[in-house]
Amino acid sequence: MILELDCGNSFIKWRVLGSQKVSVSAEGVVGSDAALIESLGALPGLLLTRCRLVSVRAQDETNKLVEALKAAFGVEVSCAVSAREMAGVRNGYDEFERLGLDRWLAMLGGFKLASRACLVLDFGTAATADFICADGEHLGGFICPGMPLMRNQLRTHTRKIRYDDVAAERALERLSPGRTTVEAVERGCVLMLRGFALTQLELAQKYWGSDFSVFLTGGDADLVADAVPQAQLVPDLVFVGLAMACPLS
């Protein structure tokens, strides 16, 4: 069994691949290293042989997690690292190692699935867009606050904006103009994400006409999916790239 981890700024997304290395036997999202160890320990018949992970966290945080996994399950851990070029994709950053690893792996995964020019839109803590040409050249990308950051900034810096997550979820049942503060904030943030996605789509069309693929990924990708109907929703796109960056025999 192979454990795969996507360690983001806010959460750790995990999944366990079965003996065939393709079928997902268990998966989940947790908020801490301890919660991850507890969730994995509760799985019946878990017998991990290898682990691979991608982390955008500080190096010392990542090291602590690696040591915890080794201690708990006796498993070797392979960590994805930056590269100037991999699997036909050429990193477009001036300093390639400064491109976020989650973005890099999503790009690798998108290019593999598309086999042509592609636009990768990731909606997590931040919203990101990356443009990869048919020859694998990464043109660069954009980063802006995602849904959690926009929401939290308004809650933090505006005294009268106070509501819980349940109210936020109810507010997103439709996108008509809000008649309460929670509706106005939540729906306004969603429309900003959709505007971001549509702007990237227009730019991609200027580059490549109609000859490109669009991929949506990240925890809030479903909020913009119907605004970009031609896009493929691939929640585990980072894991596709992780398998390429850390192949396990």
Task: Provide structural commentary.
- It is a single chain.
- Helix 3 crosses helix 7 and helix 5 packs across helix 6 (181-208).
- By secondary structure, the protein is α/β, with parallel strands linked by helices.
- Helix content is 37%, strand content 24%.
- The model has no long low-confidence stretch (mean pLDDT 91).
- It has seven helices and twelve strands.
- The strands form three sheets. A five-stranded mixed β-sheet has the order 3-2-1-4-5, sandwiched between helices. It has a five-stranded mixed β-sheet with strand order 10-9-8-11-12, sandwiched between helices. A two-stranded antiparallel ribbon has the order 6-7.
- The longest helix has 28 residues, at 181-208.
Q: What Rg, in angstroms, do the CA atoms define? A: 19 Å
Overall shape: globular
Low-confidence stretches: none
Order of helices and strands: EEEHEHEEEHEEEHHHEEH
Binned strand content: 15-25%
Q: CATH class of the largest domain, anyone?
A: Alpha Beta
Oligomer: single chain
Distance between the termini: 12 Å
Number of domains: 2
* CATH architecture name of the largest domain: 2-Layer Sandwich
Question: What topology, given as strand order, has the largest sheet?
Answer: 3-2-1-4-5
